[in-house]
Amino acid sequence: MKKIVLSMLFCSLFLSCEKLTKSIDETLKPNDTIVNKEYENTSSPTTLQDEKKEVNLLTDLKTLEKAENELKKLPQYKGKEMFVYSTLYFYGDGRINAMLQHPENPKYVDAYEFKDDKWSQPIPVQLSVRDDIKGRLVPLNKISFVNAAKIAQVYNEKTKEVEGAKPTTSVYISVWDNKIRWYPSSISGSRERYSIEFNDDASLKSFKQD
Q1: DSSP letters along 145-191, please?
Q2: pTM of the model
Q3: pLDDT tens for the chain, residues 1 to 210
Q4: Burial letters 55-65, b for 16+ CB under 10 A, else e
Q5: Alpha helix locations (H) across 73-172?
């Protein structure tokens, strides 16, 4: 009988010690699952403030002005007049593609891309002997980058007057005979097509059905 009582007492003490040990372990080493969940909740961005806002370059006058000013400050053109060759593209996604006459050799042309708020290094452009370099040059000072936004605004307003027409996502300049012309130059709808033309200062010159 004494053996049974002693045995029961020993088991009771053992179980109490085991519970006490487990309690201490859980205090010193909290449950991994709980810790992981708390870490995930505090480390994962969940607010809209952490998301990058998309900006349409064709409505962003500040960035257009910045791009123009920084292009004019390229060190290789310091003290020299800059000439745009052939085309100058503006894209809604934030890019600008420009071609400039080489600062040292007038027979050469370099391409530059404005992306992520900065201009790239010059990229050599391969030209043909048939390319009319002189006739496709215009001084950079005669072009205002903010006019690209004005062109897009006027163009997109006109698309509202044409059934099925879509707003533009890009604007560009083409140079011929040392004169600039703004594009797009047409608006196509589901039933009609219109020609649209702009003055150098981005004001509307003509808008008529083809």
Answers
A1: TTHHHHHHHHHHHHHTTSTT----SEEEEEEETTEEEEE--EEE-SS
A2: 0.74
A3: 444 444 443 444 444 444 434 444 444 444 443 334 333 443 444 333 433 455 699 999 999 999 999 999 999 999 999 999 999 999 999 999 999 999 999 999 999 999 999 999 999 999 999 999 999 999 999 999 999 999 999 999 999 999 999 999 999 999 999 999 999 999 999 999 999 999 999 999 999 999
A4: eebbebeebbe
A5: 147-159
